[in-house]
C-alpha cells in the first residue's frame, strides 16, 4: 500500500493535469514568438546585434521581476499573481502589431518580459506545490514535457505563418495573445494549496537554489543563441525548413526528460546532469559544422537528448530541500538563472556572431557549459 501511494494516483491529480495543459498552451504562446521576433527585428531594419537584443532585453526584464514575484507568491498566494501575469503577457503580445520601429519593438519587448517572469515563475512554483517530494524529478520531467511539446510545434508554426501572407507577423502575435487568454481560463480550475502567508522579512532569493540556478544559467547561455539565431544561421547557409530543427529537438527532449527525471530520483542528480552537459557541448560543436538540413537535425537531436537529461534534475535540485513557504523564492531563483543565461547568451553571443560569424559563435558557446560542469563538481570536493 505504501508503494501505491507514491504512484500515479498521487502524481496525476486533477490540478496537476490542468497545470500541464496550462503550461503547454502558455509555452505555445511564448515559443511561437522566439524565432519570429528576431526576423521581425531584421524586417524593421535591425542587424544581428539587434536580433539578439530582442531576446536579451525580454529576459533581462523577466530577471528583474522574478525575485519580487517569488516574494509575492509566498506572501499573497499563487492565484492572483498567476492571473495578473497572464493578462500582462496577452496585452503585450497583441501590442507588437503596432510596432513600426526597432526602438518601439525593443521597448514593448522589455515590458513584455515582466509578464513572462510572472507567469513562468508562478507555474514552476505551483508545480513544486503539487508534485509529491518522492517523485519530484519524475514530476518535473512530465511538467517540462509540456514546454517541450510546445517547442516541437510553435517555432515551426511561427516561421510557417510569417512565410505566408495570409497570416504574417500579425497572425503570430494574435495567436500568442489568445493562447495566454486560454491559459488564464485554465488557471481558474486549479486547486491551489493553502499556505500560511509569510508577512515578515525574508530574502528575495533562496540560497539553497543558487547552485542549480548558476548551472542552469550557464547551460542556457548557448540555448539563447540557438533559439535566437538558428533561423538566420540556416538562411545564411541556404537551408530551408529549419523549423524542423525545433521539432526534432523537442521530440527527443520529450523522450529524455521523463526518463532522466525518474533516473535522477533513483540514482541522484549527477547521473542526469553530467552526461547532459557533455552532450550539449557536443551538440554545439555539431551546429558549428552544420552545412545541410540533415546535419542541423542531427545536432538538434543530440541537443534535445542532452538538454532533456539535465533540466528536470536541475529544477528538482533547486526546490528539493526548500520549505513550502520558500518555494516561490526558490522557483524565482532558479528561473532567474534560466532567463539570465538566455538573455546574456543572446546579447553576448549575438555580438560574437556579428564579429566572427555564426559558426564561430556556436564554438564559443561551449565555454559556459564547460564552466557549468566545473561548478557542478566543485562542491563535491569540499
From TrEMBL:
Protein name, UniProt field: MFS transporter
Organism: Desulfitobacterium metallireducens DSM 15288
Topology of the protein relative to the lipid bilayer: Multi-pass membrane protein
The keyword Transport is annotated on this UniProt entry: yes
Keywords: Membrane, Transmembrane, Transmembrane helix, Transport
Ranges for domain Major facilitator superfamily (MFS) profile: 15-382
One function term, GO molecular function aspect: transmembrane transporter activity
Taxonomy of the source species: Bacteria, Bacillati, Bacillota, Clostridia, Eubacteriales
A GO CC term assigned to this protein in UniProt: plasma membrane
